[in-house]
Known about the structure:
The chain contains ten helices and 16 strands. The chain is of the alpha/beta class and about 325 residues long. Strand 12 (about 250-255) and strand 13 form a beta hairpin.
Amino acid sequence: MLIKEAAExxxxxxxxxxxxxSSPHFLYxxxxxxxxxxxxxxxxxxxxxxxxxxxxxxxxxxxxxDLRIPYGTTYHFQLDILILTTTFFxxxxxxxxxxxxxxDQEFKQLIRTYKGVEETFPDPISQLYRQTFLxxxxxxxxxxxxxxxxxxxxxxxxxxxxxxxxxxxxxSKSVTHSTNLLAKFHEYQNVYKEEKIAKKEIKKxxxxxxxxxxPQTTDLFNQFSMxxxxxxxGVACPDCKMIPIVxxxxxxFCLKCGHTSKDAHLAALKDYSILYNPSISNRQCCxxxxxxxxxxxxxxxxxxxxxxxxxxSKRIYHLHELE
Length: 323
């Protein structure tokens, strides 16, 4: 049973908007593009697991993607995939990488070689050890019964080569390709046959996990030394993506390609909600859409599917309906 599915993070959405609304010559554009590409690869790696996860017994599994759980007052631990059953739990770390992956167990690092370039990353096996420990601590703190916890690094690209250092170390218990997930799951079922936790308790646990889940928030403006002045304001052309387009006779008109639209401003408002705030005032909307008339803005907002509420003397429009 899928409890929490894989979804694009707010950071991915923000990066897309920032790239679409910044100059091609922005100083840190390449760094932003690299960050977005890395996050897209991670998301696609998790989504590629859907087929293999769907082969698992639905009545016996409770599956979560992308959990980020607080531990103590300042620390969080993140789980790509967590599978709960009545006999064991399974934590999965997904790696969507091409080339050759070398799991260096002497210096606890992951080395990727691809097209003659060598890169070093944190060791996912060590990460899983910490995640397993912290999940056990969470269970103890909340007085859940002891449940065996297995962990597995899954390489989602079937063409990626897996090697180890030293070469004699057998990584097959810790690392595998996604095509082997079902077989590994059956192995765990054969080992752990005794029920350790009732389904009633699992449901109590998954409600706790969903309640405590804290998606990561990052100040991307600060990370990439970007200010609001680096963001192009206005409505984007739905066809050629030109910013800004103009409003003529009740429609949006693109001076570059000639495309017209009645509701192109809704996409711009969605961009605003992703970058800044899930609600907007008339004055803020005038500024972001680059329309000086508050009466035109009021007409556009009142005619939109957005709900609104009063905040003091101002009316605030809620943008979550645009998701």
